[in-house]
Amino acid sequence: MLPPEVQQEGLAAFKRIGEEISEVIERRPESLVVVRLVRPKFVRIVEDLADPSPVKIAEPPERPIERGLAGPGMLADTIVRRWQDHTPLHRQESIYARDGLELSRSTICGWHEQLADLVEPLVEAMLRDALQAPYLCTDATGVLVRAEEQCQRAHFWVLVAPERHVLYRFSHKHDSAAVDRFLAGYKGYLVADAHSVYDHLYDTGNVVEVACWAHARRYFFKALSSDPERAERGLALIKGLFRVERSIKTAPRKKREETRREKSRPIVDAFFAWCDEQAADVLDETPIARAIRYAQNQRTALTRFLVDGRLPLDNNVSERNLRREVLGRKNWLFLGSDEGARTNTLFVSLLASCQLHGIEPWAYLRDLFCVLPSWPKSRVLELAPASWKQTRQHEDAQQRLAANVFRAITLADHAPPV
């Protein structure tokens, strides 16, 4: 940009003495690219009667959906929009139409169902790996499923293997059978709420219950309006536990156990001594009575974090990850079918695990669709978000990604790196 005087008199009349630089963010419509694949056909000039295939043509490049219209980047975009940004298919339909692409919601839905079959072995491998963790965190939330007369209530479950995987499952009932399908064969600590659907797991001794202090705290919050003095005392003691936890958040296991013995155990002992003292004085079925009774009933499980430094004080990690489905539910309202629920949980598991490991989801899914179709099944766990950063450094993965023509097109458009 030149001043008016310089434009009128010319650069020869002035001496440049510096410059001022500023930047402005702008936006342009998204870029949809049609990749035309040209495969020349050849025949020998001198006919070879022994050649069973006289016409020579290169094999078509591998696609996530065989002979599908969409490439890896386009498919990844529809998935990120649907389950990361919570954009229902009818809204995606209108968004792509504004960019000049007439794409029906039924087509997108069909793509996702086919891709679900592709990624299911990977997510199942992630679940098997998660069940080897020393402790797991779990929770559930309701969801509606379309039925012939009226929507039926069903449930999403989340299972978090800290620092490894975030996994989701779907069931029609919130019962022990659903828990068994999700946690079959698991042995270790289970951080969960006090719902009875988990009780049978603890009876065997293979699974050890760990209760959540955030749940206990919630009961005392509900009692603030009716019995503020007692509720505030209970909350103050629980607050002390969380203050200690913040101070050792990144500490190694032994340090956490030592600090909990020195600082947290006296608070826990004081809290339950106070609960026992107040229990006889509060009126039955009042909010404060329910708060104290909940804590007393969960005493053993609530104190379990004191014996193992790996265990968390609360189950908030499960609730945070369930918000992903809750936010989605506010947009798409209900599931269309059981198959739709399966597709949902598979891709939400991958997206939530990407967030856990700080991986950009679109680039991950694009690259996953580039390599997964021909990736050795025995090594499928290497493609999980937990291992992705290491896997991408391997020569095998780099060669596969570099050879993918569709990925090369998206990189030419300066796609964001993982």
Automatic annotation (TrEMBL):
<protein>
    <submittedName>
        <fullName>Transposase</fullName>
    </submittedName>
</protein>
<feature type="domain" description="Transposase IS66 C-terminal">
    <location>
        <begin position="349"/>
        <end position="385"/>
    </location>
</feature>
<dbReference type="InterPro" id="IPR004291">
    <property type="entry name" value="Transposase_IS66_central"/>
</dbReference>
<dbReference type="InterPro" id="IPR052344">
    <property type="entry name" value="Transposase-related"/>
</dbReference>
<dbReference type="Pfam" id="PF03050">
    <property type="entry name" value="DDE_Tnp_IS66"/>
</dbReference>
<dbReference type="Pfam" id="PF13817">
    <property type="entry name" value="DDE_Tnp_IS66_C"/>
</dbReference>
<feature type="domain" description="Transposase IS66 central">
    <location>
        <begin position="67"/>
        <end position="342"/>
    </location>
</feature>
<dbReference type="InterPro" id="IPR039552">
    <property type="entry name" value="IS66_C"/>
</dbReference>
